């Protein structure tokens, strides 16, 4: 067949074939992630893959001691090594010597005192990464080793570890009648371990000096403008001379890049006049970034004979580690949500965050709320056991609803379908019991080919109900700015909201598609030349940045429709855009978006700023939160009561989501959050004996794998829209993390009868002996 004949035959076949179905777009559909293909093909631009002409490599010297006085620092041997271009210490910092996410109390490099294991002492730039590491090791530091303060309870009486003292914040919450008492009282002491965010992908960055004496930082930052301002202050530069360009973020459940990685890069680039790159090892990541706050909690619950709560008393102690970071914010969440999503007429909570010589703690998804959820849910189990009631029923009798009042005095104005969520997971069918016969093998708690015996396995069912706040709190100015441009049938979104895996870039495309009826929507890369959008945490970008994108898109929509409305003598509200077509209510007008644009370029910039909040007062009272989200989880576990091993069989999830914007993406976020909570419950505990991080690697720190993940059943998504939130949607990632550890612990208690008052659950806590 000739080429002409083949072409003609193909044309005839194309004409006969049905037109392809248009791809789904807009809100409410499962639009594929924009970066899915790049990540699959290995072309996603991670910071660790960056390169520049004349590149130097950086290494950081970190303290081997958790607490020591620095007697002297000798860098001469490192400077003399061939290939070494610069060595910097605290003496070389031209600007502010302190930094910090929430409180600027953390030195750029330790100068007089080392306050935690892994604190930066010096940094080196060399022409080869091995040379840089050897040179860093050649820096001689003479220490006077001091006894570390590692018990947060001892921090109150210990000598000050920091010029600001050991106490970071104290919140005494007072709500109701202190003399109130219930017919029954249950008490408990609970401990939550230190969780590492364990970011996937290497923490890395590249600094490139600029001709104007400034510097550009290429980082996987989750808050680029804050990082820019911190760097500029340290370098003694105006903010406009420091630019942060956000590279591909592999994923983040906490502050992705710690300043102890970022700041030495820029300083070395400015010192050498060359691009400088640092790629942290996993050990350096464990030593450098912040972790979840280890927490000690004491609780006393009062209830009446029907199981209804009368009063909650609690003491909450957060171990902030060496520096304050975001500990004040975490404490506010812990104290405010210390009673959980339950109606409590009287509450008296004491909360403290203190400095120790342990590794620094900071923002990790669900901070504060996760720790108290594990404790108050254990208390609810104790009430149920003491009264002989079903654990779900006790929770239902106390469930919070819209219009109820938090212990902070704030009225819950957002949808709070706590009872509905609980009922959904309680009524969902339980998974079948395994058959205990040789012919039908089943998975033992020890894993495939488990070491235990089926006869020693007990099944337990438990519940967890959790809540989190969305956005910042206590007067935080939450604002984001976005620009939407339209030209040649293509829409572009410019917004400094970083895609950390939460799906913002996909959501931004959906918003513009929904508003303007355009299929092709691009989201521009993020850098600090754009207006700030804030940090990528607590569901901020779904609410604040998504709201800014929607407002900008609506402004462009008005610009697009105004000429047509004027021409036909009607209001723009009488025109609608659907599938790329503009039509009027009466059918008189019908045209396409492309024809209406007629080659014009339209653009608009808008901001979104939620209603203001206020700090908690001296009695822990105040409208501190913009909105809240809720979740209920029922856990089913199998426990080998002889070995203490636990297998989570199923987690049934019901969640308050406001509105489903992307079904597939939402389900993935819930499943990921539940699995992260599984690690908190069973395996993840960064051990720090005497302040030293033991086994700072993924062999010693046990993350859950695909083999550990249970069946996750999303049994109910309550779509009761929050009227003050754009689209009515709520954040979905944090609240499953908060709730699932409590549910798993509850199920282990049900299976063993043991108190289970520590997370992660140690095997000895699940062993049943004759005495227990």
Automatic annotation (TrEMBL):
Residues 1-18 have a biased composition (Low complexity). Residues 1-28 are annotated as: Disordered. Residues 41-147 form the Aldehyde oxidase/xanthine dehydrogenase a/b hammerhead domain. GO terms for molecular function: iron ion binding; oxidoreductase activity. SUPFAM superfamilies: CO dehydrogenase molybdoprotein N-domain-like, Molybdenum cofactor-binding domain. It comes from the Bacteria. It holds the Pfam family Ald_Xan_dh_C. This is Oxidoreductase.
